[in-house]
Amino acid sequence: MARRVGQLEATLRQVELARDTNAKMLDRIVAELEVERARSRDLLLNILPQSIIDRLNGGERLIADRHDDVAVVFSDFVGFTEITAGLPVATVVASLNDMFSVFDAACSEFGVEKIKTIGDAFMAAAGLPGAGTTPGPSSGSIGGHVHAALDLALAMLAVVEAAGPPWRVRVGVHNGPVVAGVIGTSKFVYDLWGDAVNVASRLEASSEPGRIQVSASIVAAAGAEFQFEPRGMVDLKGKGSMPTCFLVGRTPTG
Predict the structure, then answer these.
(1) β-strand partners of 181
(2) Closest CA to 103 of 124, 119, 83
(3) Nearest Cα to 181, choosing from 74, 49, 91?
(4) In terms of domains, do 73 and 143 share one?
(5) Per the domain annotation, does 50 fall within a domain?
(6) Would the pTM of this model clear 0.70, i.e. be above it?
(7) Which of 250, 228, 142 is nearest to 215 (CA)?
């Protein structure tokens, strides 16, 4: 009997040891799973806004929304082809990564939604739901969506100027109606379409190196908090001639 009890006690200790081992293994698996979930969420947030992720998780598959007033920011590096020909690939990629990373941080700071990068081009939009800004100018650097877009443009210009030669950038900003939506099934892409996007792109393309060109509607919406330099009538490809200004900076206070 004593021997039988001893065997049972030994078996119980083995069971308890196995249980403890399995519990530790389960805890480790759960912890690793949470890390992977967080990594997946971060990757998704690099592609889609949180509000869109929530809607996709809720079962929506066809997402297309019209927004009446969104400020679109476009930037592009001047002479990028020549830069890539004259610098090592690793240097070009590292420089782009450094500058785009600061662009991303500025988007977060000012409540602007980064839409995409295409090569050396960067596109962002202020005034989309859930992006941290609301339509209409207001006081404060992260207030109205037009102010946020202009603050972002100034921050982007400062980043590139700090990087120095050979890096120079052109920026264009325009506001108006857009359609925002998700296309694709296995590889989702969140993008904007509409006249505001097209005009912002043309403003960037016709701007001067190291300058931010904006439309008359942006100047009107910005109010007195920003300073502009009139440029006159500029011919925008596919859009005709329209008045534009260069953004100089924020109006000094005090």
Answers:
(1) 64, 191
(2) 124
(3) 49
(4) yes
(5) no
(6) yes
(7) 228
Alpha carbons 79 and 84: distance in angstroms, whole number: 9
**Alpha helix (H) residue ranges in the chain:** 2-45, 50-57, 80-86, 89-110, 145-163, 195-205, 216-222
Split the chain (254 residues) into runs of 10 and give each run's mean pLDDT. 61 68 72 71 63 69 82 96 92 94 95 91 90 46 79 97 95 95 72 93 96 96 95 91 96 81
Q: Name residue, tokens 């927004």.
A: 67
User: What is the C-alpha to C-alpha distance for residues 111 and 143, in angstroms, rounded to an integer?
Assistant: 9
Contact 112, 125 (CB under 8 A): yes
Residue 54 included in any domain: no
Residues 171 and 223 in one domain: yes
Domain extent, residue 25, equals 1-45
Sole residue written with tokens 């919406």: 221
Compute the distance between CA of residue 188 and CA of residue 144 in angstroms, rounded to an integer: 29
